[in-house]
What we know:
Blueprint: E1 14-18, E2 32-36, E3 39-46, E4 51-55, H1 66-72, E5 77-81, H2 98-111, E6 118-122, E7 131-136, H3 144-154, E8 159-163, H4 170-173, H5 175-188
Parallel strand pairs: 1-6, 1-7, 4-5, 4-6, 7-8
Antiparallel strand pairs: 2-3, 3-5
Amino acid sequence: MGSRFAPASVLSRRVCLILTTVSDQQAAAELHRIEVGGLTIAYRQAGSGPTLVLLHGAFEDSRVWIRQMEDLSDEFTVIALDAPGFGASDDPPPTWTTADYGNHLADVLDALGLDRPTLVGQSFATITVPTLLIYGDADVRSPADVVGRDMHARIPGSTLVVIPDAPHMINLEQPEALRAAIRRFAGEY
Length: 189
């Protein structure tokens, strides 16, 4: 299942790509709201330090990142967005394209005053920036040896991390391994 995001307009930003789809599993943290491009966008924020922006997959919202927000907020400012049309954010116009989502994401990052944050995305489409691909070697939905290696070959400069014994929902089943991979990647940039 793919997402409608393709943030080609954020080429100067770092992106971490995690190919998972996670259902809504936890209670929501406090929501903040910001008006950008005529849409009210909801987001959650915790911690301090270099900024990580967490982007959910299709049919989800920022609540899928609650555990990672708790786990990473000791070292990072962690922001989890509700994309337009999801969670507590306004619906976009029905004519929006993936480019519109990407451009709007760049506008949201600018409106929040974020300078070169690290983006962490779940179930992302195509991206052409430095990218971390995280797969579980026990994932039968998106096998690392097939889908992961294919994505790695298609995204120039990407880094592929395969987590042993991890299924498709890495952020729920192996949060410590996910957190470690994100910290290593974010620390490199």
